[in-house]
């Protein structure tokens, strides 16, 4: 009987060690967010000088609320983060200067349509975090109109794998 008890305790100890070693340490996701695109605004006449657009509002196509990472309606924002669609190959935004929103939610101002095309590159982070998406080969396309406030767009970093690098400069 004493031998059976000893074997049982050894079996329980081995099972405990196996469970402890077999578990992943990443049961909590800390760094599992798909990165957003960092944009900055510059003067078209003095290209090294940052310049905030007046009363800027950025809204994604088919969306009803502005992108919150750019302080909607601000005249002091010179850079910010914009989310791209991780399950598509392009994302379209309406960038509005001198923006105002009436009581019915209609936006007015100088509206420029900007389309970003890219390739997505899923990356496995961990069991807890799953996958994130990085973006590669970023290409901006400004839809021309009779009164574009955006004069030029320059891609600085065509691969979006973090939120600290500057990806796009917008000159106005």
Task: Describe the protein in words.
Helix content is 12%, strand content 39%. The mean pLDDT is 85. It contains one helix and eight strands, in the order αββββββββ. The protein has one domain. The chain is mainly β. Strands 3-1-8-7 form a four-stranded mixed beta sheet, with no helix packed on it. The protein has a four-stranded antiparallel beta sheet with strand order 2-4-5-6, with no helix packed on it. The chain is globular.
What radius of gyration results from the CA coordinates?
Answer: 25 Å
Indicate the structural class. Answer: mainly beta
Residue runs with pLDDT of under 50 for 5 or more positions: none
What is the chain-wise order of helices and strands? HEEEEEEEE
Q: If strands are numbered along the chain, what order do they take across the biggest sheet? A: 3-1-8-7
Largest β-sheet summary: 4 strands, mixed
The amount of beta strand, in percent, is 35-45%
- Count structural domains: 1
Q: Measure the end-to-end span.
A: 86 Å
The counted number of beta strands is 8
Helix content: 10-25%
Arithmetic mean pLDDT: 85
């Amino acid at each position: 009987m004493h031998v059976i008890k000893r074997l049982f305790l050894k079996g329980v100890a081995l099972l405990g060690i196996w469970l402890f070693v077999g578990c992943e340490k990443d049961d909590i996701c800390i760094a599992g967010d798909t990165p957003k695109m960092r944009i900055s605004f510059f003067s078209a006449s003095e290209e090294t000088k940052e310049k905030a657009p007046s009363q800027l509002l950025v809204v994604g196509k088919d969306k009803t609320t502005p992108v919150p990472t750019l302080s909607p309606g601000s005249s002091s924002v010179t850079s910010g983060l914009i989310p791209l669609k991780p399950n598509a190959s392009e994302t379209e935004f309406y960038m509005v200067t001198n923006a105002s929103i009436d009581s019915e939610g209609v936006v007015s101002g100088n509206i420029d349509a900007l389309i970003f095309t890219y390739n997505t590159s899923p990356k496995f982070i961990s069991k807890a975090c799953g996958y994130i998406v990085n973006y590669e080969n970023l290409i901006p396309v400004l839809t021309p109109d009779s009164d574009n406030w955006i004069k030029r767009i320059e891609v600085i970093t065509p691969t979006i794998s973090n939120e600290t690098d500057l990806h796009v400069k917008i000159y106005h």
